[in-house]
């Protein structure tokens, strides 16, 4: 594992010290992983939107679902 340094204000540090038994490294690691996943999803969403914008076809998910539902009746 690698080490990093995080700067927090004095009040936050004091509160963290008062909460004994909390693994702050694990809390930070989980927060970093969550943020990374959010950013990856955002990037993927932007890529999908760009592909749709460049697409010549106009496709509607709701119209497609309606078509398939009507075919099964």
Give a topology summary.
Layout (H helix, E strand, L loop, with lengths): L9 H9 L5 H31 L6 H11 L2
Question: Rounded to an integer, what's the Rg over CA atoms?
Answer: 23 Å
In terms of DSSP E residues, the strand content is: under 5%
Distance between the termini: 58 Å
Content-based structural category: mainly alpha
Number of helices: 3
Oligomer: single chain
Helix content: 55-70%
Please state the average pLDDT score.
Answer: 93
General form = elongated
Low-confidence stretches: none
Q: What is the total tally of β strands? A: 0
Q: How do the SSEs run, as a string of H and E?
A: HHH
Q: What does the main sheet amount to? A: none
Give a structural overview.
- The chain has 73 residues and is an all-alpha fold.
- The protein has a domain at 19-55.
- Helix content is 70%, strand content 0%.
- The chain contains three helices and no strands.
- The chain has helices at residues 10-18, 24-54, 61-71.
- The longest helix has 31 residues, at 24-54.
- The mean pLDDT is 93.
Which descriptors would you attach to this protein?
mainly alpha
């Amino acid at each position: 594992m690698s080490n990093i340094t995080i700067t927090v204000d004095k009040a936050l540090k004091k509160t963290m010290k008062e909460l004994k038994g909390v693994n702050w490294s694990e809390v930070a690691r989980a927060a970093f992983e969550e943020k990374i996943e959010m950013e990856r999803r955002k990037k993927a969403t932007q890529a999908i939107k760009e592909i749709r914008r460049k697409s010549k076809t106009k496709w509607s998910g709701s119209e497609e679902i309606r078509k398939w539902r009507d075919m099964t009746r």
